[in-house]
Amino acid sequence: MLHSIDLSVIIPVYNVEKYLPHCLESVLIQADNNIEVIAINDGSIDKSPEILDQYATQYPSLKIINQPNQGVSAARQKGITVAHGKYILFLDADDFLEASSLSILYKKAIEADADMVLMDYYTYNPDDQKKTYIQQISIHQYSQASLLKQMFCAERAWAVWSYIAKKELHETIKYNLVSDLSIGEDAVYTTQIVLAAHKITSINKPLINYVSRPDSVTQQKNISDRQFSSYLKFPQRIYDLLYPSYLYPELKESIAYVFLRACYETFYFHHFKNAATIARLAYRQQQVIKSKKLLNNFGKWFYKAIRYYHIHPFLGNLYIKKCLKRGKI
């Protein structure tokens, strides 16, 4: 008879030999008979596989699955299919947990009879080993709309590592909506989790450390064509998930914010290929609402850029170059 598992920690691993030992140690030291740790080696070509094997000999709670490189979404999906835990936590292989975080999260989930438990986090700089506590707006019990509104308006992280959720919620995910994304996949994934959850609560403690790596996507000055394509896709997928829902009237302003934020970030990264296309998307969503609150979240130059792109790409590019020269961006 299979022993009951309370919590499964799923760790996608791809070429993270520098960070992997710290990540594994932070998890495995907490793993008792009721916790399983599943590492998905997603075709690593560095020393990550050897590190995993070394830890597996010491910790029987660690299970290793090897597969050809398919990307982080496919690795997480594979982990879900083999997990036995009542709840699931995703952990990136370059991040690490605080002491006793797994027992704290599970205890809260059981006490609240929650489908989903959110947590605060630290950002961690590996160069100077400095931690910064990211304390987020927290309420005892969330509705679906209140949580999505916070996430869409950047008041709470939508990262998949920022919560635990019941396995049955993960089993409702449409992976085709996230598998081709390199930016925004967490936003689309977590939106689906929230839509499937009935009871959502939070812990006002930092239980995980998000490691700020200089080579991560969020630290890059330029974005690839695939990443740019994701900026075009992920806000629309959130819109498509929510538009048929009874939640849409309450969330339409914050959904527009997601479109505008994606547009802003493409400008920020100084990547102008197809900028007119995403500007038109943002312009259309801007017209959904006329809220002063939303418009005040961005500089005047940004809205002028959207209007110029809406008229003609040449004018938009010309205006952006002018802003760059004047140091507005």
UniProtKB/TrEMBL annotation:
This is Glycosyltransferase 2-like domain-containing protein. Residues 8-140 form the Glycosyltransferase 2-like domain. GO terms for molecular function: hexosyltransferase activity. CDD domains: Glyco_tranf_GTA_type. Gene3D superfamilies: Spore Coat Polysaccharide Biosynthesis Protein SpsA, Chain A. It holds the Pfam family Glycos_transf_2.
